[in-house]
Design brief:
With 292 residues, the protein is an alpha+beta fold. It has one domain: DD-peptidase/beta-lactamase superfamily (Beta-lactamase, 3-Layer(aba) Sandwich). 29% of the residues lie in helices and 16% in strands. The protein contains seven helices and eleven strands. The strands form three sheets. Strands 2-1-11-10-9-8 form a six-stranded antiparallel beta sheet, sandwiched between helices. Strands 3-5-4 form a three-stranded antiparallel beta sheet. Strand 4 and strand 5 form a beta hairpin. Helix 1 runs parallel beside helix 3 and helix 1 packs across helix 4. It holds the Pfam family Beta-lactamase.
Length: 292
């Protein structure tokens, strides 16, 4: 894929990327849901060494959230059960709507009234799952997500909010799951990738105040945000996450495409400029190929 050649011009030492596409049969993101036939995603472009390990930073939240969704599917948790500060639920924590500050125990708003991006919220999710299952969160994540998806080198060593390390091959396998989910039902996946607690304003880290600052259950949703780390040509339904370590994953269900980029340079102005260009070029190249 020609678009991925621009990674060679980025101010990073090491970068790897993969673009995947699903035929899009059977529901959101091409999913039939757990237990149904899958529209298997295939690689349409790759760059870099797929075996180099990267710190994922906040891309880890996607995988931690997915483990929580699996726990919900298994009946270990419920979205509406209390978790976190008073009046907060599992859903509030997943959607950064619990009122918890980014770090520490401070509660800055009533649950459901503001979108406050919170590492603490994901750490509380991890503790809550541990309490109800009596399984350490890193073990649950490995058994519920990493092992079934063949993510053989992925590991969580620390906070569920930011401490996964993995290779491009691992994260690509996870992105393929997001295009054609097999570990959760179509209904659960649709809820996770739709706006939770609509209309909440907040700050998108690195990109400033957003009104609204749409989020699903662990998945950031592009919506009408501007500026943003994806392209203006990504559909509003695009969901994913970026990490401070210079990583991102997005899935655009309007075209059944996923893009993963991993680098070894922390997010900064360089990424805010380069990532939307890459995303736009990936989408444009695939559209040209589709119509050729």
């Amino acid at each position: 894929m020609d678009a991925l050649r621009q990674l060679d011009t980025w101010p990073v030492r090491t970068a790897a990327a993969v673009v995947l596409r699903s035929p899009g049969t059977g529901g959101a993101g091409g999913a039939a849901g757990a237990g149904g036939p899958r529209a298997v995603a295939t690689q349409v472009g790759v760059a870099g060494d797929p075996t180099v390990r990267f710190r994922l930073a906040s891309v880890s939240k996607l995988m931690s959230a997915y483990a929580v969704l699996v726990a919900i599917e298994e009946g270990a948790l419920a979205l509406d059960e209390p978790a976190g500060p008073e009046s907060s639920t599992v859903a509030h924590l997943l959607a950064h709507a619990s009122g918890l500050a980014f770090s520490g125990d401070r509660v800055m708003a009533r649950p459901g009234t503001r979108r406050i991006y919170s590492n603490t919220g994901f750490e509380e999710l991890g503790r809550h799952l541990e309490r109800v299952t009596d399984i350490p969160f890193d073990v649950y994540l490995a058994e519920a997500v990493f092992r079934p998806l063949g993510m053989g080198t992925a590991v969580l060593e620390g906070s569920p909010a930011h401490a996964v390390t993995a290779t491009l091959a691992d994260v690509g396998a996870f992105a393929a799951e997001l295009l054609a989910p097999s570990l959760v039902s179509a209904a659960t996946f649709a809820a996770a990738t739709s706006v939770a607690f609509p209309g909440l304003a907040g700050v998108l880290p690195g990109f400033g105040a957003q009104h609204p600052n749409d989020w699903g259950l662990g998945f950031e949703i592009r919506g009408t945000k501007s500026p943003h780390w994806t392209a203006a040509t990504n559909s509003p339904a695009t969901f994913g996450h970026f990490g401070r370590s210079g990583t991102f994953v997005w899935v655009d269900p309007a075209v059944n495409v996923a893009c993963v980029v991993l680098t070894d340079r922390d997010f900064g102005d360089w990424a805010g400029a380069a990532w939307p260009v890459l995303s736009a070029d990936v989408l444009a190249e695939l559209e040209v190929a589709r119509t050729a």
